[in-house]
From TrEMBL:
It comes from Spinactinospora alkalitolerans. Homopolymer. InterPro entries: GTP-CH-I_C/QueF (IPR043133), GTP-CH-I_N (IPR043134), GTP_CycHdrlase_I (IPR001474), GTP_CycHdrlase_I_CS (IPR018234), GTP_CycHdrlase_I_dom (IPR020602). PROSITE patterns: GTP_CYCLOHYDROL_1_1, GTP_CYCLOHYDROL_1_2. One of its GO terms (biological process) is one-carbon metabolic process. The lineage of its organism: Bacteria, Bacillati, Actinomycetota, Actinomycetes, Streptosporangiales. It holds the Pfam family GTP_cyclohydroI. HAMAP family: FolE (MF_00223). This is GTP cyclohydrolase 1.
Amino acid sequence: MSVNGMVEERHRFMPETPLPDVEAAERAAAALLRALGVDIETESTAKTPIRMAKAYVELLTPRSFDLTTFPNDEGYEELLLQRDIPFISVCEHHALPFTGRATVGYLPGERIVGLSKLARVVELLACRPQVQERLTKQIVGWLDERLAPRGVGVVIRAEHTCMTLRGVQTPGTTTVTSSLRGLLLEDDRTRGEFFTLGGASQ
Ligand SMILES: Nc1nc2c(ncn2[C@@H]2O[C@H](COP(=O)(O)OP(=O)(O)OP(=O)(O)O)[C@@H](O)[C@H]2O)c(=O)[nH]1
Ligand SMILES: [Zn+2]
């Protein structure tokens, strides 16, 4: 397909996780709530097990999308950076959400990517049981493989509710992770620009 004279390419990406069994999740949620002493027989709580099951399905099911790319006809060689992409993920240790913002940047090679797709990739990889380190590296690896950019980098700042709502109880604590590849890793000037433009130097 041609868009403004450019040849567009689309590749469909579906969630890799198996389809959730919502009824089994509802039964398990009911058993968990009962075991915790929660009354699920009231008018208000009768549907809590199915609500809980659906809430987790939502947290763990990313939307499918088309990865649309275009030829880099303008020869854009500088950094393209998107800041503060919000995401919700699930900590694989406590099955509690961790939420934050990702900054994603890349140095285009032969193709440029549709802007919205960077946020869609973050969602695709966040909606599964995760640790922040793996999420950070997976976003970089995913983009590196599919865009063949000259460099790619990700910084994630997140708050883990397993640390803020329970346990050590440190609300406001932010965990910062980063992953860089290609020229963003190897070239000092480009790396500096990434952290300056991404506001990730503090
Ligand atoms: N490295 C890493 N650790 C994480 C992440 N999310 C949660 N954790 C940590 O995983 C660890 C699990 O440790 P455990 O000692 O088994 O769990 P716990 O007894 O509930 O620990 P506390 O949270 O300290 O009460 C905790 O220190 C969590 O803070 C993450 O994304 N990356
Ligand atoms: Zn946790």
